[in-house]
Amino acid sequence: MKRKAYGRDAGLSLRMLLTGSMLGLLYVLFALVLFYVLNAGLVLMLVIVGVIAFVQYFTSDKIALRAAGAKVVERDEAPELHDMIERLCAMADLSKPRVAVIESEVPNAFATGRNQKHAAVAVTTGLWNRLEPKEVEGVLAHELSHIANRDVLVMTVASFFAMLAALLTRFGLYSGMFGGFGGGRDNNNNSVPVWLIILVVSVVTYFLSQILILAISRYREYAADRGSALITGAPEYLMSALQKIASGITQIPQQDLREVEGMNAFFIVPTNWRSRAGALFLTHPPLEKRLAALGEIAREMGRPVA
Q: Is the four-CA dihedral 202, 207, 212, 214 of positive or negative sign?
């Protein structure tokens, strides 16, 4: 299978392109306003955010694994899991990532890493114990698709200026309280304070960028679902796995769910999947929409759909 086939869907690709273009346009406007308003200080901000993004990108795998409490395991510690991932990687023409296990009853999995050589796939013991082998394969293929699609890179680039906007929002608030940001293009007493302009522009940019970034995140999940179907040739197993994971999460005590909720953006099914928050603010598509999309793929493949 050619890597370029992962997640390939004309409608999905178009939506991702349009969303990315809107995000890029927003960032261009944001940068133009900042360059116009600020005589100095913006370069320092860009350097700070650049360093943050650099560290985030190059240490993403270590940070995510540590945050999830995942332990990298060798073959002798989890031979079946290693065998499964190796088989899927061979089918998908991918380099084998590191394999990690999370001691948690919450059924879930995630992938991280800036590229194939620095990637890791982690599964919880709850997922391994609840799902059938074919269902686990469907989940792992979904995670491998994230790696193949370089989703860590995509999301890091997408969020770069959003981080800058968040940082400038804080500086704007501090400046308003302590009288900073005094040097702008117009220092007349009757002009609008520079800190207020920066604050308003940054807040608006951050809010709009987060909506677009979340949209991209949801599209990446659709693409990874499709990638799983293409790798395994059996989308019905991922459908079954998603339903079991979602059902299993509802049976987990809230205290245990709170311990891992910080990983929801990474998980294949977020622990708050039943949230009634507006669709614009979800990291993942609604479960029923993912199942419907997979069902359509299954029908295209001539596979059985329950």
A: positive
Residue 306 lies in a domain: no
Has residue 151 been placed in a domain? yes
Please give the tally of structural domains in the chain: 1
Query: pLDDT tens digits for 152-192?
Result: 888 888 888 888 888 877 776 665 555 555 555 555 555 67
Could you tell me how far CA 141 lies from the centroid of its own chain? 16
Long-range contacts of 299-306 (CB under 8 A, 24+ apart): 301/229, 301/233, 301/235, 303/233, 303/234, 303/235, 303/236, 304/236, 305/236, 305/239, 306/236, 306/239, 306/240
Q: For residue 205, tell me if it sits in a domain.
A: yes
Task: Record the tokens describing residue 166, joined without a space.
Answer: 């968040």
Catalytic site positions: 143
pLDDT in tens, 251-304: 999 999 998 998 999 999 999 998 877 778 899 999 999 999 999 999 999 988
Q: Is residue 273 part of a domain?
A: yes
Query: Range of 22's domain?
Result: 3-301
